[in-house]
């Protein structure tokens, strides 16, 4: 279901104190590995009830495990996919929500003792699957590097009361792994067997929680998105858009997919986020397209940190930037020198961070794919669309601006923006980045008012291409009191100094506490052959299968297109 979120115009500046919490939302990763069933090798966990109960006695972890400053040697589990450190049983779903169609994010903010110091592996209303539910644990390895695995098996998401929404899976399984010394926590998913029921979205939760103000929750926007499109939210981000893990039978997690939360070590440099535009226009002197945020996740200050960006594929580039010092908990966004991306095609952008004595090296690299085009720009891929929108409730004249990176003089020919709203009046603006601190500045173009539509994207073809120089901004003005619902992807922490809120020409940079990354595509004029579809002109709203389909075309090139010499094929 699509929903529209309020984009608050004030800047969030507060941070929450998590002095004891030995985990960080920036130091959690998505991984895909193997899944090893322990039902034959592990020790069975006796439950008070296989479907609605918890472990009868505490499960021995097998070593000291530090969670939120407290050392635990035992834990308890519940059939509803939740683990609690200590010797007291965790709570079930029924205390917090009615069924799997209900919002369940209150598990993070509740002060109920049964939901503190917990791991939410797949927290929802779970019942027996194709066989009797089974729960096991095993500790493997040699001290000080042992791993304890706890497993839930032969379960499924329960039907709603009256079977209004039926289970999406006939059987599913998952594990929680606890790592000695590092105190890492890994939630890993096994086989999810789809049911024959009607496809629908169900809501689960995944994350770790110390208290109602100290937690990290997983956010997957909608059930149709794959598990790989997830972000990790701290309490600040959770307050803006609740953590949730929507699931459906057509989008099961890959076998061995996991969420891993790295425990705090003494020395640990981490790549917290990579800012790589998915499609960029070719340039002999590109900059800002690729940046990386590194963070000191350890307890000790770090010195002499090498941060490297390496581009391979269509183009080649490598550079290492040294950070002299970085205080504990501090982060820094690294910019690299201008680089040549004159060749079109696909390339890999690999970031690496290195420091002497690093105790967690799994978080030292991050790779992104990027396409270099002749004249097409797309900061975020369509696959990251969270199917929700941002805008302003009960306000008119406000706007949201996004910076588009580029070099040299270019001409903007077309802007494409997806909205969740329909028939909502908006306008497009193009501005230079010559404002204070490179904020939106000189106004280059304002479109006439136009309405959003249900065609997935609202396409604006500029009557005359607009000349820009270097980086520039595209802004969307909301002309009505109805939230315009500009679709977005989540990026948390948000790329700094790229997104602005505007009100009648006054712009304020968005805080990185807010991870709304508006989706947009831009076509820049070039000298090569470039003919594109402007719009479907027939049929319109009322049509039948006998209606012919016609489209309007536009030459986006600066050169005249000879259709006789270079025919254009339209398919669909």
Report on the structure:
- The chain has 572 residues and is mainly β.
- The chain is built from two helices and 43 strands.
- Strands 2, 3, 8, 9, 10, 11, 12 and 17 form an eight-stranded antiparallel β-sheet that branches. Strands 4, 5, 6, 7, 13, 14, 15 and 16 form an eight-stranded antiparallel β-sheet that branches.
Distance between the termini: 27 Å
Structural class computed from helices and strand pairing? mainly beta
Please estimate the helix content: under 10%
**Mean model confidence by pLDDT:** 90
Oligomeric status: single chain
- Integer-rounded radius of gyration: 26 Å
Main sheet characteristics: 8 strands, antiparallel
User: Are there runs of 5+ residues with pLDDT below 50, and where?
Assistant: 1-19
> How many strand units?
43
Helix segment tally: 2
Which strand-content bin applies to the residues? over 45%
Global outline? globular
